[in-house]
Design the sequence.
C-alpha cells in the first residue's frame, strides 16, 4: 500500500491586483491617517497595514500657532498613493475648491470626494456628491466618492467616470460594522468600477466579511487608530482583508436549509440489533 | 486683509513671503490661494499684497 505524505503548500501565487485609475495595487486595504495619538504610531500602523493607498485631509494652517506641524513635516509618503479627501465640505462648491487645492498640494489627481452636510451621522449628500463628482471628473480628477449605500447612486457615479464607489458600511467612526449588507450586495453585483467599503468597520472580521461578499477593497481609519494597540490592529486588518479576498476567490459553499453530513453516511458502526423475543 | 478666514493687519510693502515668514509657515509644505491663483508648495511667488486681499494657506493634515 502506498501513502502520500502530507506536505503543506502555500496557495499558488496569482496576480490579483486592485486597479484604480490605471494604477495597480497589491493591497486591498486602504487606511486613513486621522485620530492617531502620535505620528510615530501612525507611521508604524501604516507600515503594519501594508496599505498602499493612504488618505489625508486638507486644512487651513492654524494662524497664530507657531510650530504648527502638518503631516508632511512628519511622515514620508513616498511609495504610497496619497488620497486627499474633501472631508468637512458641506457643498459642491466647497468640495471642488478643496479638491483643486489638494491637487496642487499633493501633486496627485486622486481625490476622495466627501460632501457631508450632516454633522450628527456624517452621512454624505448624494445630490451634491454627484454634482461635485461630475465637475471633478470633467477636470481630470480620479474621483473616489464616499457615498451612501445606494445602488442607483453607485451606478450614476460610475457612469459619469468615477474611478471607484465607496459606500459606507455604517456611519463614519461608529464601529458599528456592516449595517447595509443588502444594498452593498446590489452595488457589488452591478459594479463596473471597484467597490470600496468605507466607514463604520470596527473589527477585522467585518473587513473580512466585506471582502468575502465581494468588495474590491475596504478603507479603515478609526478602528485602527483607536485600538489599544493600533500597530497590531493594523496587522490584523491586513490579514483579515487578505483572508476575505482569498475566500471570495475560492468561492464559498452553498447555504443549505438543512444539515449535510460531513462523514460518509454508509458504514456507520451501529449497535447490534436486539434479538427478537422467542 | 483676510488670511485663513481671520482679519490680518496689512502693512505697506507686505508681500506673500513676508506674510508667511510672519506666520512662521514652512513654504515647502503649504499651498497658497491668493484670489483665484493657487501657488504650489515651494513655488510661491513673493507677490505684493493688498489690504483687500483674501489669502488661504492650507496644508495636508491627518484624515480618513
Sequence:
Amino acid at each position: 500500500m502506498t501513502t502520500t505524505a502530507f506536505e503543506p503548500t502555500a496557495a499558488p501565487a496569482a496576480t490579483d491586483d486592485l486597479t484604480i485609475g490605471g494604477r495597480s495595487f497589491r493591497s486591498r486595504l486602504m487606511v486613513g491617517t486621522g485620530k492617531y495619538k502620535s505620528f510615530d504610531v501612525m507611521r508604524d500602523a501604516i507600515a503594519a497595514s501594508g496599505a498602499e493607498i493612504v488618505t489625508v485631509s486638507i486644512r487651513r494652517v492654524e494662524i497664530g500657532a507657531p510650530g504648527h506641524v502638518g503631516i508632511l513635516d512628519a511622515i514620508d509618503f513616498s511609495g504610497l498613493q496619497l488620497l486627499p479627501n474633501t472631508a468637512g465640505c458641506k457643498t459642491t462648491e466647497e468640495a471642488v475648491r478643496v479638491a483643486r487645492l489638494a491637487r496642487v498640494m499633493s501633486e496627485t489627481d486622486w481625490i476622495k470626494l466627501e460632501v457631508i452636510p450632516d454633522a450628527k451621522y456624517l452621512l454624505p449628500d448624494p445630490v451634491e456628491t454627484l454634482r461635485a463628482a461630475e465637475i471633478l471628473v470633467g477636470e481630470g480628477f480620479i474621483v473616489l466618492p464616499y457615498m451612501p449605500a445606494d445602488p442607483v447612486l453607485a451606478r450614476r457615479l460610475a457612469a459619469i467616470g468615477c474611478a471607484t464607489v465607496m459606500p459606507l458600511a455604517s456611519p463614519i467612526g461608529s464601529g458599528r460594522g456592516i449595517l447595509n449588507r443588502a444594498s452593498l450586495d446590489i452595488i457589488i453585483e452591478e459594479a463596473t468600477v471597484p467597490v470600496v467599503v468605507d466607514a463604520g468597520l470596527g473589527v477585522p472580521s467585518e473587513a473580512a466579511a466585506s471582502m468575502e461578499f465581494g468588495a474590491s477593497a475596504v478603507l479603515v481609519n478609526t478602528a485602527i487608530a483607536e485600538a489599544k494597540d493600533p500597530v497590531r490592529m493594523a496587522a490584523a486588518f491586513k490579514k483579515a482583508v487578505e483572508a476575505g479576498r482569498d475566500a471570495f476567490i475560492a468561492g464559498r459553499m452553498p447555504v443549505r436549509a438543512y444539515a449535510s453530513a460531513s462523514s460518509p453516511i454508509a458504514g456507520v458502526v451501529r449497535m447490534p440489533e436486539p434479538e427478537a423475543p422467542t | 486683509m483676510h488670511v485663513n478666514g481671520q482679519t490680518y493687519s496689512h502693512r505697506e510693502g507686505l508681500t506673500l513671503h513676508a506674510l508667511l515668514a510672519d506666520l512662521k509657515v514652512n513654504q515647502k509644505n503649504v499651498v497658497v490661494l491668493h484670489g483665484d491663483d493657487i501657488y504650489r508648495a515651494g513655488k510661491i511667488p513673493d507677490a505684493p499684497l493688498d489690504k483687500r486681499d483674501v489669502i488661504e494657506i492650507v496644508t495636508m493634515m491627518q484624515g480618513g
